[in-house]
Write a structure and sequence with these properties.
Pfam families: Trypsin. The two termini are about 30 Å apart. The longest helix is centred in the C-terminal third of the chain and has 14 residues. The strands form two sheets. The chain has a six-stranded antiparallel beta barrel with strand order 9-10-11-14-13-12. Strands 3-4-5-8-7-6 form a six-stranded antiparallel β-barrel. A hairpin with a 7-residue loop joins strand 12 and strand 13. The chain has one domain: Beta Barrel (Thrombin, subunit H), CATH 2.40.10. It is built from three helices and 14 strands.
C-alpha cells in the first residue's frame, strides 16, 4: 500500500427509458449538460448519510461551472495539489466550458452541498486524461488534476492512500461515497453526502452478473452498490483493519436506468493505474 499521493461519472442520461428496450451503458454524470440544475443535485441509491466530513476528508466535488457551484463529479485528493478523477468527468467539463478545464473550481471538506462556506476551494491549472480514454465504457477512464494552490490538511481535508500495484481487493468490502441521485426516477435530491458498501467482485463474478457483451476489462473492478447520475469519479474505498483508507476505484459506468436488474457498477481500478499516476506527476514536475 503506497502512501497518499494523488477523482466516477460515466453515465450520461437515459431519460424516459422504454422497459422493452435493452438498457444503455452510460457514463455517470449529469442527466443533461445543456440544462444544469443549480438547486437539485444527485445521490447514491439506498445509501446512508455520512455523519461528518472527517469520515471521508479526501473526497472533493468538481463544479461544472466557474460562476457558481454546481456539482458535476467526485474525485479524491492524493496529494496537496493533486486530484484523481474519472476521465469522462474532465471531458464533460471540456464540453460544457468550450474546451477549457483550467480554472475549474474544486470543493474539499464538504458533506452538505447546500452550505459550502467552510469548503476549501481550489482551481485547476493542469489536467491530464489517460491517452487510452476514448469515451467508451471499456476505455481507460482516469484523469489527474493539479490545482494552483495546495490544500491545507486538517480533519476535514486530507489525502487518501493509493494502493500498491499488486493489491487485490476481490471479496473485500468497500464503501462508495457520492452526491448522486437517490432514486433513478426521482426528482428530489438530498444535499447530504451518501455512502453505501458491498463486497468487491472479481472479474469472473462480475461477468456472471453482466450481459455477455458488457465492456468489462481487467482495468476495472465491480461493486453492487447502486450509483447514479452525479456519482461519476466517486471513490470506491477500502478500510483495512489497521492503516489508512485506500483508494480502490473511481466511478466509471453502469447500465441505465440506475441499478437496473441489480447489475454491478464498474469502477476504474486505481491499482491498475498507479504506475500511470506517478508517471504523470513526475513528468509534470520535470516540465514545470
Amino acid at each position: 500500500m503506497l502512501l497518499p499521493l494523488i477523482l466516477l461519472p460515466v453515465l450520461l442520461a437515459l431519460a424516459g427509458a422504454n422497459p422493452a428496450q435493452l438498457p444503455h451503458i452510460q457514463h455517470l454524470t449529469l442527466k443533461s449538460l445543456e440544462q444544469v440544475p443549480v438547486e437539485i443535485q444527485p445521490l447514491i441509491i439506498d445509501g446512508y448519510d455520512v455523519q461528518g466530513v472527517d469520515n471521508v476528508p479526501y473526497l472533493v466535488s468538481l463544479s461544472l461551472t466557474k460562476a457558481t457551484y454546481t456539482h458535476l463529479c467526485g474525485g479524491c485528493i492524493i496529494a496537496k495539489r493533486w486530484i484523481v478523477t474519472a476521465a469522462h468527468c474532465v471531458e464533460d467539463l471540456r464540453k460544457f466550458n468550450d474546451g477549457d478545464v483550467l480554472g475549474t473550481p474544486i470543493y474539499a471538506g464538504v458533506v452538505n452541498r447546500s452550505n459550502v462556506t467552510a469548503a476549501q476551494v481550489r482551481y485547476v491549472d493542469f489536467a491530464s486524461t489517460h491517452r487510452g480514454f476514448t469515451g467508451e465504457a471499456g476505455s481507460d477512464n482516469i484523469a489527474l488534476l493539479h490545482v494552483s494552490e495546495s490544500f491545507e490538511y486538517s480533519a476535514r481535508v486530507q489525502a487518501i492512500a493509493l494502493p500498491d500495484i499488486e493489491d487485490d481487493y476481490s471479496g473485500k468490502t468497500a464503501a462508495v461515497y457520492g452526491w448522486g441521485l437517490t432514486d433513478a426516477d426521482g426528482d428530489e435530491y438530498s444535499k447530504e453526502l451518501k455512502y453505501a458498501f458491498a463486497p468487491l467482485l472479481n472479474s469472473t463474478a462480475c461477468k456472471e452478473l453482466l450481459p455477455a457483451d458488457a465492456p468489462l476489462t481487467k482495468q476495472q473492478v465491480c461493486s453492487q452498490v447502486k450509483t447514479c447520475y452525479g456519482d461519476g469519479g466517486t471513490p470506491l474505498i477500502y478500510w483495512p483493519i489497521t492503516g489508512p483508507a485506500e483508494l480502490v476505484g473511481l466511478g466509471s459506468w453502469s447500465y441505465m436506468p440506475c441499478g437496473f436488474a441489480s447489475r454491478p457498477t464498474a469502477y476504474t481500478s486505481v491499482t491498475a493505474y498507479v504506475g500511470w499516476i506517478y508517471q504523470v506527476i513526475a513528468a509534470y514536475y520535470q516540465l514545470n
